[in-house]
Amino acid sequence: xxxxxxxxxxxxxxxxxxxxxxxxxxxxxxxxxxxxxxxxxxxxxxxxxxxxxxxxxxxxxxxxxxxxxxxxxxxxxxxxxxxxxxxxxxxxxxxxxxxxxxxxxxxxxxxxxxxxxxxxxxxxxxxxxxxxxxxxxxxxxxxxxxxxxxxxxxxxxxxxxxxxxxxxxxxxxxxxxxxxxxxxxxxxxxxxxxxxxxxxxxxxxxxxxxxxxxxxxxxxxxxx
Length: 224
Fold this sequence. Notes:
The chain is about 45% helix and about 25% strand. By secondary structure, the protein is an alpha/beta fold.
C-alpha cells in the first residue's frame, strides 16, 4: 500500500484529504507544517507528498526545495488556493511534479496521484512495460519476446517520453526542449525524421502507435 504524507495547516482540509485518500486505498500520514513534514520524512518511508503552499514555519515552496535536496525522485503534488500563473511557475521551478488549485475535485486529485506514482515507478526502475514490450532506459533497448531492438539515444528517449505518458499530446517545442535541450538548434524537421524512424521500426508492433495531432504535435497510444 502506498503511503502519502499530507502537509496542510488547516485541520479540516487535512482530515478531508486523508479520508479521501484512505477511501481510495492509500495509507496516510499527517503534518501540520513543513518542519514537521521533514521530521516525518526522516522517520519513515513516504511514497508521495501532498502539500499546501501557505503554511506557518515553512511554506510549501521552501518545503519542496528542502525535499528535493534529499529525495530527488519523490513525487510531490501541490494543492493550494493560489491560482496565479506565477504561483504555478514558482511551484514547478522549486521542484513540484504537479499542481492543483482549491477547491479541488476529489477524483481528479486521486487520478493525478496515481499518475505521479506510476511515473515514479517508471523512473525508479528505468523500465517501461506495455503489454509484451519492455523499454529499458539504461540499455536503450525495446524488447518483445526474443526480439530486441537497440535504438540511438535520441530515438529511444523520444519513444520513452511519449510512452511514459500515453494519450498526452506533446508539442514539437516541448519534445525539442526536453530531448535535445533548449540550446539545441534542432528544428521541426529533426523531430519529424525521428518520429518517422520510430514508426518504421515498430510498424509491426500492435501494442502502441505514435500519432500526429495536426497543428499540435504527437502522442503515443497504447493498444493493450
